[in-house]
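Changelog-adjacent note: as of this version, every example in the card shows the full chain rather than a window. The one below runs 90 residues end to end.
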Amino acid sequence: MPDDNTNCWIYKSIRKEEMYLYLSAEDAFDVLSDELLSSFGTPEFVLSLELNTTRKLARVETSKVITALQQDGYFLQLPPDLKPHLYFGD
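Full-length structure tokens:
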């Protein structure tokens, strides 16, 4: 189980709606591959927060984010798999 109280900095993609990047250190983009950073686009800072296993996140399991931050230095949250036909009655 990941350690409690992990700080993270969250950035959104300006290229892909609802794609977020969680970093273990502020502006620590050097942990990302050039390909990932190129695909993500220029990161736009959203907020910083302290994660722990009791804190709930909207779209991802907190323990997965904490583990990725501790092992890789980042976590990439992909956009939800939306099904437009379900929303527009097609």
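Structural remarks: Strands lie at 6-12, 20-23, 44-51, 74-77.
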